[in-house]
Structures are given as C-alpha cells and as structure tokens.
Amino acid sequence: MSSRITKSLSIAALAASLAACSSVPLDQTGSGSGAGGDGASTGQIMDPFNPQSPLAQQKSVYFEYDSYVVPDQYRSVVEMHSSYLSNNGQQKVRIEGHADARGGSEYNLALGQRRSDAVARMMQLLGVRAEQIETISFGKERPRAMGNTEADYAENRRADFNYQR
C-alpha cells in the first residue's frame, strides 16, 4: 500500500513540475515558435526524433564501474524521458544497456541488462507503462569510445534511450 502512495505522490510531483514548466508567454504566437535559439524561455521541443530536442540530445544514462544504480545526476534525464512517454502513451522506447571492455562477455551482457532494467524500473515508478519499454543488453559489443583509458571506459558504461518509430 505504501508503494502505491509513493508512486501516486511521485506522479503528482512530476505533474506539478511539468505544469510549472509548460507556461508560454501570452504574446507568443503559435506559428514558428521553438525554432529559434530561445528555447529556455519559449518552451522546448519535446520530440525524440528532432535533433534539437532535449530528448534526442540527452539519451544516455552513465554508470559507475561495475554498478547498475542510476546515479543522482542522471535522474533528471530519466524523469524527462518518463514524462514524455507518460504523455505519449503510443510511443515505445528500447533501453539499451552497455558495459566497458573490462570483464568477460557473459558478465558484461548481464551487467548491461541490469543497467537497462534499472532505468526501466525507475521509469515505471514514474508512471510509464511496462508495455512502452523494451530492455536489451549489448554488453561490451557496441562501444561508443574505442580507447583503453578510464574516460573511454566511462563513456561505454551506459544505458541509451532508443525510440521506436
């Protein structure tokens, strides 16, 4: 029962914060808005297929070494994607988990899956329906950075949002 209350309160808080962000100045016309560089004050385009949208620009959650806990600094990214999906019930997303090159293939596949599942669970707690989310792991098979430095490894420890058309 307490998890239901917690979920309801989380959804209410998310809805309130979205309502606060959705105001548009009364002198703004509907034609051509959002195309300029003043996205912060005029509202942002929330379309995962538009390269200028925050949904397209912020499509990765990065993890610490050997961890699948979503770091606090990426919670807002998960919340943004969750809000979009909650408001667009027909839209589906595939969360793709990845790992760095260290460790065996089987271990990294399992770790990548735990990372994508962790993001999916958080999204469901924020109101996204399970039918909208698919999770998959690529382990270390699809690195974003090809080097062997700590920065390269950090770039590869991630879960990516991949929206389905």
From TrEMBL:
One Pfam short name: OmpA
Domain of life from the UniProt record: Bacteria
Signal peptide extent: 1-22
All copies of domain OmpA-like, residue ranges: 50-165
Entry's transmembrane regions: none
Alphabetized UniProt keyword annotations: Cell cycle, Cell division, Cell outer membrane, Lipoprotein, Membrane, Palmitate, Signal
Stretches for region Disordered: 29-51
Topology of this chain in the membrane: Lipid-anchor
Compositional bias per record (Gly residues), positions renumbered to this chain: 31-40
Subunit structure: The Tol-Pal system is composed of five core proteins: the inner membrane proteins TolA, TolQ and TolR, the periplasmic protein TolB and the outer membrane protein Pal. They form a network linking the inner and outer membranes and the peptidoglycan layer.
NCBIfam families on file: Pal_lipo (TIGR02802)
Function (record text): Part of the Tol-Pal system, which plays a role in outer membrane invagination during cell division and is important for maintaining outer membrane integrity.
Similarity comment text for this entry: Belongs to the Pal lipoprotein family.
HAMAP family (UniProt xref): Pal (MF_02204)
Protein name as catalogued: Peptidoglycan-associated lipoprotein
Species the sequence originates in: Neopusillimonas maritima
Gene responsible for this protein: pal
